[in-house]
Every structure is written in C-alpha cells, then in structure tokens.
Amino acid sequence: MTGFQLKLLAIITMLIDHIGAIFFPQYGIFKIIGRLAFPIFAFFIAQGYLRTRNVKKYMLRLFIIALISQIPFLYTFREAFGEGFSALNTIFNLLMGLIAIYLYDKSNWKGRQLFIWIFAILSFLLKMDGDITGVFMVYFFYKYHDDFKKLTGRMVILYILYSVFVILYFASMGMPIKMFFTPEGKYMLIQILVQFFALLALIPIKTYNGQKGYNLKYLFYIFYPAHLIILYLIKYLIK
C-alpha cells in the first residue's frame, strides 16, 4: 500500500469509530474497526520524523492542528460522553510522541529512553486521547522501523502492560479487581480488551511500499478538525 492508501484507511476507520461513539455507542463493531486508525497515524508520525527535512516545522504543524482541533474535539465528544468529558485531542498525543523520539534521537545520554517515559506519563496526566500507548507506539515505529518482528513483539507487550496498568489504576481508585469479572464491571473489561484489535493495523502497515501515492498531505491535516465539526453539527441538529 502507498502512503496515501494507508492514510485513507486510517481516516476512514477513525471516522467509523467516531460515528459509532457519537451515534451508535451500543454497537461495539464501530469501536473495533476504529482501533486500526491510531497505530497507522502513529506509524506516519515516525515515518515523518525519519523523512522530513525540518522536524521543527513538522512539530509546529502538528501543534497548530492540535490547537485548532481542541474545541471541536471537546464539543463533539461531550455529545457522546457527557458534559463532564475533558481531555486533550489525539493530535497532542502524536505530537508528544514526535517530541519524545526527537529528544531520544538527538541525545547521546545512556538513559535517553527516559524521554519516552516522561512524555508518555505526561500524556497520561494531561488526559490526552491515546496517552501512554500513543507515545510508546510512535517510539516503537521509529525504533523498529526496519525490524517488523521486533516491532510486533513490542506492540503486543505494550497492549498487555497497558491493560494491566488500567486495571491497577482503577484498583488504586478504589475499584476492586474482582469487579471487572462481575456483570457490572464486565463492560469495562471488554473496553480494555477491545484495544487489542489495534494490533490488526500492523497487517496493512506491513504492506507499506514506501511510496507516497497521491500527494494530498494537507487533506489529512484538515480532515481531523473538519470531521469533528461536522459530526457535532449533525448531532446538534438531531437533538
């Protein structure tokens, strides 16, 4: 697959995911399909870093899109998850991953992997959509861009460890672990397990041929805030 085809797959699956979250939350298939989107975007952040001539301009572009997208992101997902919803959008998380691998790559310090951990934890604390997994995913796509077997192994471990982390996090908030195996807690456990479908994104990523395909770079930047605004307006008009 060309870069254009992969990015198109990412935005289509993301759109399906968001349509499901806002209009059809009772149907899990939307969420399952949507898990393919983020790993592909993370893959292209790493590819962008490896190929771009000016990393700082690349960071600035992401930051501007993240800022533009934040208000549409909040309004749209408050329609889905309620007025209490508060988080930073996915682009901020991808930007964190990009900054992390930039610092990692430019440092000669033996403990430079700490940069990855710092930005992963910061993403979690700032409640970014993608949080810890997003930053590590960008790092793995950068670190193992020429070793698909190691990349796959690290991604599987990442999702296992993150699942354990989420369960322990809720336990620290006062929710007994055994609650996840009760009818009341089963929904939360399913939401955690659904995340593993993101690993399926490695299949189309493996077919990437290194070619750009159609050069519609700015379409993908514009699409993120634009589709959020459109979904919000549709939901608002329906209400």
Automatic annotation (TrEMBL):
Q: Which positions, given as ranges, span the membrane?
A: 32-50, 62-78, 84-104, 116-142, 154-175, 187-206, 218-238
Question: Can the keyword S-adenosyl-L-methionine be found in this entry's annotation?
Answer: no
What top-level branch of life does the organism fall under?
Bacteria
- Which ranges form a coiled coil? none
Q: Which InterPro entries match?
A: TraX (IPR008875)
| Keywords of the record | Membrane, Transmembrane, Transmembrane helix
- Indicate yes or no for the key word Isomerase: no
Designated name of the protein = Conjugal transfer protein TraX
Q: Which organism's genome codes for this protein?
A: Tissierella simiarum
